[in-house]
Give the backbone structure.
Amino acid sequence: MSPPLTEQDDVKRFATLRAAAAMVGYQLWRTDPADGNVRYFASRWNVVRDIGDIDQVAQFVYVVGGA
């Protein structure tokens, strides 16, 4: 069984997803964990999409062709 993911793991995973999304023209943002629940956003052509959690961000990046 693998150990539970830490906040640092999420930061690294998000950085990887952000880079992959950038390769296909999307920008990814996230709110600061110190502010409470982390929210994720993707944008392209001035359209912003609210994405639920890091797993949904990974799915979004996969669907748009960034993975």
Q: What stands out?
A: The beta strands are 27-30, 40-44, 47-51. The chain has a mean pLDDT of 86.
